[in-house]
Design a protein that fits this description.
mainly alpha
């Protein structure tokens, strides 16, 4: 869980500190293309995005708590399932099921022949 939290925090810090000019230029170009298509010049009519920031920056600045909570809950669930399955695989007590042949033989013994 700490690795998930550490990774998310590092990505958030990177989004705040480093301005990725390549990402921002790409986003700016996409917004310009969407503006041209919004006027009816393209194959589809798009809405111009309201944000001037790239979606990844918006996601990590405005929704960081939600992302962190979801990642921790999902990670906890995966860890719990892994623990459950591993414990079941390595359990010392084994349940022995009757074989199909033994079951059929036992049921024939219960009923006397006609």
């Amino acid at each position: 869980m700490s690795a998930i939290l550490y990774g998310l925090t590092k990505v958030r810090e990177k989004q705040h500190v480093v301005t990725n000019t390549k990402l921002e230029d790409s986003w700016r170009q996409w917004r310009q293309a969407a503006a041209e298509q919004a006027s009816g010049a393209g194959p589809v009519q798009r809405k111009i995005p309201k944000s001037t920031l790239p979606p990844l920056q918006v996601l990590f600045t405005e929704h960081f708590k939600t992302i962190t909570t979801a990642a921790l809950v999902f990670g906890t669930f995966l860890y719990g399932m892994l623990y459950f399955f591993t414990r079941g695989i390595f359990a010392r007590e084994r349940i022995e099921f009757p074989h199909a042949g033994d079951h059929a033989t036992a049921s024939k013994r219960e009923h006397p022949p006609d």
